[in-house]
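Issue: ligand-bound run for magnesium ion - logging full I/O for the record.

Environment: standard queue, default settings, no custom constraints.

Inputs:
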Amino acid sequence: MITISSVQAFAIRSDLTGGTPVTPPRRPAWGASAEVASPMSRYPRFKLDRAAWRPKMPAVGCLVTASDGTWGFGVSRYGAPVIDLVNQHLGPLLVGEPAMATERLWDMMTRMASPYGAAGLAGYAISALDLALWDLKGKLLGQPVWSLIGGPSRPHIDVYATGNDTDWHMELGFRATKLACPHGPASGLAGLDANEDLVGRTRALIGPDIELMLDCWMAFDVEYAVRLAERLRPYRLRWMEDCLIPDDLDGHATLRARLPWMALATGEHWYVPQNFAHAAAHRLADIFQPDIGWAGGLTGCLRIAAIADAAGIPVMLHAGMNTPYGQHFAYAVPGSPWGEYFLGTAPGVPLDEVKLFPGMAAPADGRLIPSDAPGFGLGVSLDDIAAMRV
Ligand SMILES: [Mg+2]
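Outputs:
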């Protein structure tokens, strides 16, 4: 039996690309100057720039090597705390375990994390390990991961774009686009007006046949979410997303009851299947958006997808099309109708020039088909991985 011989997590560059973009940008990306409503908007010194309070920690790479020398690679976030959880706790306890036993290993990791909680930062550590294990399994079997989990379920993935450079999204051929909401309760009535103005201008730009969504990134309370949704009703949003602090589960129930006509999406800051089971049982949201690099990796997201499917709730991974991991999930899971691609890069730079890994697919004309290379088809060598380290 092939067993796990080593597990190693380390800091990597967070701006990994398949190559240096050669095409010059036409203008700076929207994120360089746009105010985005956030949970910290109530504090004036953090209101204009959310980067001012977010942690400046490197991305995390996790390399798992099997007894026959085959290796797999996963990535996640949040630097030293996540690296320590892998290298000082979870990783050493998995050495000697069967390398292909992803169900057993995920169950072990979440149980080992239970004294400090399998959600939050531990979710990032478990995800990095789980993704590396699935990459390893695919390589051992010579199959793309999407095939191992029952795919393909669709000829291609329909991809929507997230970000406020909407004209660029339309030029790239996306048929659905999501705005980051600039203002929350801290901006008062003027902010409500500005939000409505942005959504109205965007609807006028894209016309009636493109889907439009609004991401509210945990910035609202129930009252503000209801008030803004009523203002925006003429613009026919496909959904409003992440209106509330994620742990406020009663607030989600209240919002659901007070906005029966508006589709609500959430879940990128829920980390364990139990949160989704609760949300499914109480129909707290219409669309679940776990992140495959945060919510227990592929194994965690497959469990969430099973819960969602039984409740008739679609799963559209958070930023799933920005990683090969999310691409394989969305290609294989029948209840995952769209994939999200976050556009943080500048208009004019082709998406094929700014990939996380050279082997992964980039959206073209609002569509994507993942690589069929073994594992997640990252297209990197151990030397390439060594070069990512910081
Ligand atoms: Mg979001």
